[in-house]
Please model this.
Amino acid sequence: MKLESLAHRFRIDKPSSFKLSDIDPCDTAGLDIDKDEAKAMLKESIERLTQLQEMLYAQDRWAVLGIFQAMDAAGKDGAIKHVMSGVNPQGCQVYSFKTPTSHELDHDFLWRTTIAMPERGRIGIFNRSYYEEVLVVRVHPDILAKEKLPKKLVGKDIWKERFEDIRAFERYQARNGTLIMKFFLHVSKEEQARRFLERIDDPSKNWKFSQDDLAERAYWDDYMRCYEEAIRETSRPEAPWFVVPADRKWFARLVVASAMVDGMESLALHYPEVDAATRAGLKDARAVLAPQVPEVGNTGNGKNGNGKNGHPKDRKD
Ligand code: ATP
Ligand code: MG
Model:
């Protein structure tokens, strides 16, 4: 199976008719991690991502943003860790957005994430994002009440307005060279309970469990309604949502990795081209340096020497 087709299956291209119930959290597209095919696919996509990131960095034109949203224990952290495992840390920035601070609440709702947007040449990862503003804030009206917005600006259309602002923001970012891909890791309610139990039963995982997680679970249906509407209202060609089946962690990682590869391939990245003047400068620099390196200088042919001094890599120093 081609990696591209795997990611495409879960990309929401027809948002107006999207239903969360169309995606089965258990889906593995007929793949089995115990079979070599799935393992090879994951390895291959991570290697490809590493190559693409190098070109992204060298070219220094595009930026890439991956947004991760999910219910607790859906595997956001693990997916980010695995998918980005081969990537040069210098070219990657991960931000986790928690409950806003009072300083952050003194600004508009897109402020804290805007200043964390990836620079050109970088991959940025948002572990949660401004989407919380149409999810947790919508599920809990008291959070909205504490946002210090002028009263007359908080009307019945507030969510419609926020969707509009998010779409406009993402279109603006896309027009300025940021490739945005959004991932909803879709875990089932039953699998979440299983993972919570694991966190309770395994002492090394106790730190991952919070009573708040259990409280949020009680709002499951509200969250699902909000996620569905957010995805419908904001999945657009310039910033698509991928609804990723997440009951099988390995499968979720595979879908995320292939979507990232797909997206970055679409940028037609390449190493910066060297113009004639720079090439001439490289030649001059070579002429200065080569005599200072015995195995290169001795050959006198302008190529890496591999003659009587042995291969440079064979040296012991
Ligand atoms: P995570 O749950 O993402 O793995 P965590 O467990 O380490 O992270 P939490 O304390 O759960 O940390 O932090 C995330 C919490 O912050 C979530 O409950 C999330 O809904 C909340 N949050 C994030 N952004 C906002 C926001 N803009 N407004 C209100 N709450 C928010
Ligand atoms: Mg949490």
About this structure: The first helix runs from residue 3 to 9. Confidence is low (pLDDT under 50) at residues 302-317. Strands lie at 63-70, 92-96, 123-127, 178-186, 241-245.
